[in-house]
Write a structure and sequence with these properties.
By secondary structure, the protein is an alpha/beta fold. About 65% of the residues lie in helices and about 10% in strands. The chain folds into two domains: about 300 residues, ABC transporter type 1, transmembrane domain (ABC transporter transmembrane region fold, Up-down Bundle); about 240 residues, 3-Layer(aba) Sandwich (Rossmann fold), CATH 3.40.50. Helix 5 runs antiparallel to helix 11, helix 6 packs antiparallel against helix 10 and helix 10 runs antiparallel to helix 11.
């Protein structure tokens, strides 16, 4: 309930209450015509109908139907207006909240899950407020009004009507015990399908490149089929209780009719009252049957509210003292870290990166290089130990302050589907064209851009597909230069580029060095021989540190890696004899 209340502002709750009152008036006005019609039939069937009474009854019917239409329309306008306002508010709130979260949050929550929350779950809140809530309220109000009038006709008829309700409730309770598990499995299946589809769409080029289309497609189809199975099971679990309830309700109408006939024979009620009671009993049973089928609205709404609240309840770090922006020392003190409780990515790592130096983190894949960088950037929190920048624990900084201190150039550079100029300007939103071009020159990408027909106004395409990998890396370096952060992290920036681009990137890195701390993450040892200090990681531990010459001389693992690399560089394909 708290999750549901938190999604609605007080003004929106008041509007929904007003909508509920209008709906109540509409339901009441919808019941009254039954009484007026029966009185009209009684009058017209009499020996001498009074014209004035007939006219008044007809006017009364028109009046109450008009009130019903106006109130019903007003209730739905208020409900829909509020629902769409809530939808917009929640979606904007989620977007602003996601903007404040660190990258570790997005490692924890897959893109499919977040997309489902932003689209499906938010839409379910709107659907419940605009359609589900009015439907449920109407299905509850009509039986109350019908019961009141039938009881007024004769209390025994009223007892016949309400006497079937406990049977319906008990039956539904027995048959719906497994609903919770069924819906939980359904929601999990929906989440899994969303994640699989998002991953499939995002990786189609790679899937096709490695001829894995059939296998990957089969996996997605299996996930979709599993989701469809849960939909069918869920539908069946809802229809069966509704069907049994319908039989009980119809039996209740029969009991009321028989009781009414007995009372009619005794002269205790009139024929018109009996007919009116049967009509109202039909409306009573139809509403309760509709209520059984509408329960899924509330279940889906509660689950969606919980998913939205789960995201909104994850808060970024509290505001700390401001950072001074100087490229001071970076220290890891006895740091241990694991991803989501899996095996340790880092174990008791201690190292110091001097301010203004160029250092390298190297080692085989899975050694822990990127984990060190993730902790420095504040993507995750260490399980134990401390990470300090300028002598201040990184947990004391806000996301904004960390972002201002650190720039990163990753292996997979993301370019937005806009111009090259605007992609570089992401590093500094208010940069002038001259500043953008100056950064591009330092990144050794200016000449390439000028050679393009549209120059800096060239569109890069979705995810930068119109630009090659080496050029994307240098555009990312231009961004970092423009941002002018005191700490630069290059995460495998040269791992997948050709020799010419690697040389240009190395020259651009030399531009980055001026007055900054540069951390290179790579397993290409040839690119780090001139680093001030190299940290060698192995199986999540620090296996050695020093210059290239020192490590080659004193560290067997480093020497082995270097020799393996040298052998690979001179490897050639022999001619077949």
């Amino acid at each position: 309930m708290d999750n549901q209340k938190s999604l609605l502002a007080s003004g929106e709750r008041r509007t929904l209450i007003l909508a509920g009152l209008m709906l109540s008036l509409s339901v009441a006005a919808g019941i009254v015509p039954f009484v007026f019609v029966m009185e009209l039939v009684r009058e017209l069937a009499g020996p001498a109908p009074e014209r004035q009474a007939v006219v008044l009854l007809l006017l009364g019917i028109v009046a109450v139907l008009t009130v019903k239409a106006v109130c019903y329309g007003a209730a739905h306008v208020l409900a829909h207006t509020t629902a769409f306002r809530v939808l917009s508010t929640i979606r904007l709130k989620l977007v602003r909240h996601l903007e404040r979260m660190n990258i570790g949050f997005f490692h924890k929550h897959k893109m499919g899950e977040l997309t489902k929350v932003l689209n499906f779950d938010v839409e379910q809140v709107e659907l419940y407020l605009a359609h589900g809530l009015p439907e449920i309220a109407s299905a509850i109000l009509i039986p109350f009004c019908a019961t009141a009038i039938v009881t007024f006709i004769d209390y025994r008829l009223g007892l016949c009507l309400v006497g079937i309700v406990p049977l319906v409730i008990v039956t539904n309770r027995i048959l719906q015990r497994h609903w919770k598990e069924m819906f939980a499995a359904y929601f999990l299946s929906l989440k899994t399908m969303s994640e699989e589809l998002m991953e499939y769409i995002a990786t189609i080029p790679a899937i096709k490149a490695f001829s894995k289309t059939e296998n990957r497609t089969e996996k997605v189809v299996r996930t979709m089929n599993a989701y469809n199975d849960y939909v069918r099971k869920m539908s069946l679990s809802m229809v069966v209780p509704a069907g049994i309830s319908g039989v009980i309700l119809e039996a209740g109408i029969a009991v009321l009719a028989v009781t009414g006939c007995l009372l009619l024979r005794k002269g205790e009620i009139t024929l018109y009252e009996l007919v009116l009671a049967v009509f109202l009993a039909s409306a009573f049973c139809a509403s309760l049957a509709r209520l059984s089928l509408s329960k899924h609205f509330g279940i889906v709404f509660r689950n969606s509210s919980m998913n939205i609240a789960k995201i909104l309840n994850e808060q970024p770090r509290e505001c700390p003292p401001p950072a001074d922006g100087k490229p001071g020392d970076i220290r890891l003190e006895q740091v241990s870290f694991s991803y989501e409780g899996n095996r340790d990515a880092l174990t008791d790592v201690s190292l110091t990166i001097p301010g203004g130096s160029l250092v390298a983190l190297t080692g085989v894949s899975g050694a822990g290089k990127s984990s060190v960088a993730h902790l420095i950037m504040g993507f995750f929190k260490a399980d134990s130990g401390r990470v300090l920048i300028n002598g201040t624990d990184i947990s004391s900084f806000t996301e904004t302050q960390i972002s201002a201190m650190i720039s990163i150039v990753q292996q997979d550079v993301y370019l937005f589907n806009t111009t090259i100029r605007e992609n570089i300007r992401i590093g500094k939103s208010k940069a002038t064209d001259a500043e953008v071009e100056a950064a591009a020159k330092k990144a050794r990408i200016h000449d390439f851009i000028c050679a393009l027909p549209e120059g800096y106004d060239t569109l890069t395409g979705e995810k930068g597909t119109r630009i090659s990998g080496g050029e994307r890396q240098r555009i990312a370096i231009a961004r970092a230069l423009l941002k002018d952060a005191p700490i630069i992290i290059l995460d495998e920036a040269t791992s997948s580029v050709d020799a010419m681009n690697e040389t240009l990137i190395q020259k651009a890195v030399n531009e980055l060095r001026c007055g900054k701390t540069v951390i290179m993450i790579t397993h290409h040892l040839s690119t780090i021989v001139n680093a001030d200090r190299i940290f060698l990681l192995n199986n999540g531990t620090l296996a050695g540190q020093g210059t290239h010459a020192e490590l080659y001389r004193d560290n067997a693992l480093y020497r082995h890696l270097w020799n393996e690399k040298s052998s690979a560089d001179t490897w050639t394909i022999k001619e077949a004899h």
